[in-house]
Amino acid sequence: MSGALSDGLSAVAHTVSEAVVPPPESTQQALGYPSLFLLVVLGSLVPVVPTGALVSGAAVVALHQSLPVFALLSVFGIASLAAFLGDIGLYWLGRRGVGSKNGSRWLSALRERAAPERLAQADARLREHGVAVLVVSRLIPAGRIPVMLACLLSRMRMREFARGDVLACLAWAAVYQLLGVAGGSLFPRPWEGIAAAVALTLLVSAAPSLWRRVRR
């Protein structure tokens, strides 16, 4: 009985997967690239959008196109540029709050998202390593905001922040794209690879938080 049920579910899953017809590549690129750019910019300004998962999913789609190398390079370039512009925009808004007597809602939002102990750690690393810490902060889940806030409170100039952040965004896009390629290469169909890549990305993002809770 259980074997028949399992066979039936497998047949249904196969039928559904065969019915999923991806749109043409031209449509995927015309809609996907601008959407990726806008969502990564938005996720950098408002840190609630899982931008890493977006890049991993886009990498899976690119992996299954007729010119995967070109598509992957396009995803990498778009994601890096969008993350950089979002970071620069958020830093500029934060600098306005630091220089204002009344502060700003953007600076207040950054303070709310950075725990005092995380901010103290970020400040210490910033003093020790300088802008190089920006690269690491982009790769550590939930590490970007405390380091950015430490840069704001130390009144780091925009040019200096941008110099470190451009490398951070390039490294970030490369890592999450590799996660997408790793997940997508395991499955023949794009939607299966996207699901695996997104799950892998979310697992990597949640691992440090879960580890801290276990230690406590």
TrEMBL record:
Residues 69-180 form the VTT domain. Keywords: Cell membrane, Membrane, Transmembrane, Transmembrane helix. InterPro entries: DedA-like, VTT_dom. Coiled coil: none annotated. Pfam families: VTT_dom. It is a multi-pass membrane protein. This is VTT domain-containing protein.
